[in-house]
Amino acid sequence: MAIVTPLRTAAEQQLVEQFANVKAELPGAPSVRRLREAAFAGFEAKGLPNRRLEAWRYTDLRGLLREAKPLARPAADNAAARARLAELNLPGVRLVLVDGNFAPALSTLAELPAGIVIQPLTEALVSARSDLPRILTGPVVAEGDAGLMLNTALMRDGVFIEIADGVDLAEPIAIVSLSSGEAEAAFFHRSVVLVGAHAKATIVEISESLGAKAAQINGALIFETGDGSEVQHLRLVTRQAEQSVQVLSLLATVGAQAKFDSFALACDAATLRQQHFVRYAGEHSEIGLRGVNLIDRTEHTDVTLVMDHAVPHGTSRELFKTIIGGEGTGVFQGKVIVRQYAQKTDGGMKSNTLLLNDGATMFNKPELEIFADDVVCGHGATVAQMDADQLFYLMARGLPRQQAEALVLQAFAGEAVEFVQDETLRELVMAEIERWLQGRRDTVSVGEAG
Amino acid sequence: MAAVQETIDQVKSIDVTEYKYGFVTDIEMEKPAKGLTEDTVRYISARKNEPDWMLEWRLDAFRRWKTMTEPNWARVNYPPIDYQDIYYYAAPKSGGSPKSLDEVDPAILETYKKLGIPLREQEILAGVAPENRVAVDAVFDSVSVVTTFKKELAEAGVIFCSISDAIHEHPELVRKYLATVVPVTDNYFATLNCAVFTDGSFVYIPKGVRCPMELSTYFRINEQNTGQFERTLIIADEGSYVSYLEGCTAPKRDENQLHAAVVELIALDDAEIKYSTVQNWYPGDAEGKGGIYNFVTKRGDCRGRNSKISWTQVETGSAITWKYPSCILRGDGSRGEFYSIAVSNGAQQVDSGTKMIHLGRNTTSKIIAKGIAAGKSDSTYRGMVSAHRKATGARNFTNCDSLLIGDQCGAHTVPYIEAKTGSAIFEHEATTSKIGEDQLFYCQQRGLSEEEAVALIVNGFVKEVLQQLPMEFAVEAQKLITISLEGSVG
């Protein structure tokens, strides 16, 4: 047989050239540089994630990326960013990245609560910390992921947050990643949050675009949480430029008797792949991953998660609600692994989808991989349309059809949103959902399409 | 307590390490040289006196097979198979195609008697109500030795014979339908089967006929180092109905043997096919030595409007199972069903499931899969439900539950659910758990031993599927499950 040489696509070739050009200037201590080189070698061998990789079977990045956009350069102070941040009016500490670069001028670093240390990733990467490679690698189940490898190789900036043991943060810390959208660009950012034992924190992650020019974004957020800690993570991916392609990885290693809850809302997200890799590092912890995906036009939203029950007595809950209209495509791939010694695991995973019209597509792949016998694990996945009985009930009470539909959809999404504990943040999420529903009403009548 | 005592005795009488059907029939066999070349294919075709078109078809498949690579995506592990170290054809010397039972080698008849398969029609009639009669096609290694009730079936217009006979007697039907459901190059093992298939059953139910009795094929692998490659083709013409059963056993041996079958079902307008399998190939010993590699491609095509295909399977045997009986729901309003129990013990590996491909409008499907893993075995459910863009109103319900007995085994679920039409309604649920301690306690408190209690609970767990089996099979399957799990507790 002939020896097959893998052909590189234009985008892959461009990425190879980009890495060769920038690797000298990318920040990093020698150990970080080794990580970058190894990760890029992995990417070179595999190429961009494509349909042939089981984990990427429904999101074909190789097909989606015609070309690799030029790497973004640090932007000057941005008026549009200031305006948007003022509008958002987030409580607590605000850390802003513009095109993947930390922007201290836009961030509120002046009055940090006690017990918190924040530094730009560029600084953290060159520090002498010996545990840096471990932290940056994340849970073992994330190893070998092509999207993440690319991030490891090319990550430029982000924030590195350390929360000391026992600190109870009253207000959230927000990491706001804005794409300036002034020119087509690509950027790779990564942030790290280390939460000490028995500390309590809420971390908000926002990804938005300010302009109409497409961006290729590859972001990663890494959590390491201590024993007895309680962490809330909220992610909002909204208002993306139309042709944008975004890969967001969430890596979490959760300590014993800890709580970790994540909620992600994606709407107007263009092409988005969210991947969660979560590992239990200690017993008796509770982890919840939830989210709402609102998909319209030709958008594509993929949620892929791997929950690694590596120790006994872990509880996990996943709940994802997806609403798809237009020619949109939704993907949910959830994998719950229960290792042989992880007895007494309690796992429950659910993906519910409403298809609003023909043309909408949903791919569900909820997986269980169980090697321990004393466990209770289950998953459910449904795909259906809006319940005609519910609509009828509301319309019989005098609500016009559009309003009735909006109410049904809002309630459907609300089942997941109610897990966001912070009231201000929950309202922020609901406001985005209402905005999306309103936007849909203005363009097409949901009822007509259904 | 009589009934309970009886159950205990029954279970006790069969030691799990003693696979009941593991005996060998000592009989002179005719085989070509080991290995697979074009000559082997020609030899098989010549032995069966096949027409030229069949030989060409086989050779074409063989040439394609040589360019293919063995799939490795299933969650099963086995050493590489040496395809040149297998006999691809083995027929009893005295066999061929006997005209009546008197011409069949008595050793073979004895084998089937030991297996409890009735081949003499008068024996079947004795003491059994007429409506419970089953017509049997008995396949011994590579050849069909006898098909019962042929005459009576012919009166109803039903064709039930070995596929070799069908190639001679009904070439028009075979040519029209063969490989239209599972294409020649569908997958590695199916293509291999096309090249070297030896025998199997052929069923044709004419328009509007309800097959007067259950049809059944009993496969027996006897010879050492042989592979069994059977091919079954069932066609239910408009408005007809047939229920078909399949059973299989093999002797105990230390080597692994390959069984790569292809089964194709075709249901035309308003027709219904019910296909039941009790698969009990030799599973190997507790350490995983020996046993059958069961790599099977089974697919049904609901080609006509309102047609229905139902698969029911009880999988207790085989060292490795790799099979996904599927339904292509092409006709508007057609329905596919899949009921499965997969029991694995010892070092068995099961990767099984189904595909429901919704293509027509208002098609419905239902999947009930129950996996029970014990010992050091691994059981995977792998399934796909997909609705094409034009399959408006597609509906599916899937339920797959796994039960784990012991902490050395694994149970996995890998479902793919793809809705490409806005009006699809798909429901999927899966659970994995172990037998409840309170359930066990309750049973034991009432005097059942732990093993009996487990058997009782397991039978309750799989009841939904057992109910789908024809009566005789249900009883056998229930016993099989109990036996397969023996030794898994305590």
What does this structure look like?
The complex is a heterodimer of chains A (450) and B (490). The longest helix of chain A is centred in the C-terminal third of the chain and has 21 residues, at 423-443. Chain A is 26% helix and 36% strand. Chain A has 450 residues and is α/β, with parallel strands linked by helices. The termini of chain A are far apart. Chain A has eleven helices and 19 strands. Chain A has one domain (10-386). In chain A, helix 2 (30-46) packs antiparallel against helix 7, helix 8 crosses helix 9 (401-417) and helix 9 runs antiparallel to helix 10 (423-443). Chain A has helices at residues 10-22, 30-46, 61-64, 79-88, 121-126, 132-137, 146-154, 388-396, 401-417, 423-443, 446-449; strands at 93-98, 101-102, 116-120, 159-163, 173-179, 185-195, 200-209, 215-225, 230-237, 245-254, 259-267, 271-280, 286-295, 300-309, 315-324, 329-338, 346-355, 361-370, 376-384. With 490 residues, chain B is α/β, with parallel strands linked by helices. Chain B is 24% helix and 33% strand. In chain B, helix 3 runs antiparallel to helix 9. The two termini of chain B are 24 Å apart. Residues 7-17 and 124-131 of chain B have low confidence and may be disordered. Chains A and B meet through strand 18 and strand 19 of A and strand 22, strand 23 and strand 24 of B. Strand 19 (376-384) of chain A pairs antiparallel with strand 24 (425-434) of chain B.
